[in-house]
Amino acid sequence: MENKVLIPNEHIPVLLNETVDGLNVKNNGIYVDCTLGRGGHSSEILKRLNNTGHLYSFDQDEEAIRKSYDRLKAISDNFTLIKSNFEFLEEKLKEQGVDKIDGIMFDLGVSSAQFDEQDRGFSYRFDARLDMRMNKDSSLSAYEVVNNYSQEDLFRVIRDYGEEKFAYQIAKAIVKFRQTKPLETTFELVDVIKSVLPNKVLNQKGHPAKQTFQAIRIEVNDELGVLKRALKQAASLLKSGGRMCVITFNSLEDRIVKDFFNSLTKEEGSRKLPTPVEEKDYVLVNRKVIVASEEELEINNRAKPAKLRIIERK
Asked: Average of pLDDT values for 119-123?
């Protein structure tokens, strides 16, 4: 491949300095970026490594792997890109001969680039076929969820993953629409959602379909289940002094991370999550969640919901 450096404005990594500084990168360490995206965080980690350090970056999106390769190659050769869901973190690192790491990070949710790709069906801003798959090879897409799930299951997904007050009405409207024809596009889904929301909701700031789209995307990609499984693996992989940084973008993700971190650092773990790897073997680096600065929000409004939590293994 021909080496090139991507234009910085193509993608703005969220909480970049806070996350990379939070990892406390050792120049000879082994680091993992579980969410490569367009390589923003990975690039900064790689810049801090010498010839004996190495970065492993995961992404299940072939486009992300392809576009990030050149960006990282322009910095150094000390990286390995792994096309995989970070659910298989431990397994894929073991294949590389890695069983302990100095740091690991997650930048959760959908990347800005995926939102901006009109044909991926993630965004309510573009008219596209309902898809929302982070991994294009996955069999379950938003189309199947919207057209094949029962009203009860749609209600559960929209209520639990979107925290949508009008989940019942939306689920009922979707089922009614598809009795005539399948719901095929993002704009069709937006229209169905809008049709049952009261004017006071439609006139509020923010898109009325945001929470429902989030819910369906989480269901399609099993985002919360994958996160719970990956966090446990990540914690067990850390060396003494190693750190984990996690950026979340919604209350559901943040609650899972907060509960898991608390379960590792406090005597009584959360009953909602798997048994911690080792009780009280970890410490919270930031007791107060880290959010984007005013300066960052001025250039990247997408950072507004982002929350960063950091933990260190003793």
From this structure: 73
Q: Please give the pLDDT value at position 1.
A: 32
As a whole number, the mean pLDDT across the chain is: 90
Cα separations in angstroms, 220 against 154, 187, 195, 226, 304: 12, 18, 24, 12, 24
Q: How confident is the model at residue 267 (pLDDT cuts 50, 70, 90)?
A: low
Task: Note whether 151 and 138 are within 8 A (CB).
Answer: no
Domains and their CATH numbers in the chain: 8-113+223-313 (3.40.50.150), 119-221 (1.10.150.170)
DSSP symbols for the chain: -------GGG---TTHHHHHHHHT--TT-EEEES--TTSHHHHHHHHT--TT-EEEEEES-HHHHHHHHHHHHTT-S-EEEEES-GGGHHHHHHHTT---EEEEEEE-S--HHHHH-GGG---TTS--BS---SSTT-S--HHHHHHHS-HHHHHHHHHHHH--TTHHHHHHHHHHHHTTS---BHHHHHHHHHHHS-HHHHTSSS-TTHHHHHHHHHHHHTHHHHHHHHHHHHHHHEEEEEEEEEEE-SHHHHHHHHHHHHHHHSSS--TTSPPPSSTT-EEES-SSPB---HHHHHH-GGGTT-EEEEEEE-
pLDDT digits 0-9 by tens, 21-54: 999 999 999 999 999 999 999 999 999 999 999 9
pLDDT band, residue 12 (cuts 50/70/90)? confident
Question: Is-above-0.70 flag for pTM?
Answer: yes
Query: Token pair for residue 177?
Result: 């629409």
Sequence length of the chain is 314
Comparison of pLDDT for 88 and 117, the residue scoring more:
88
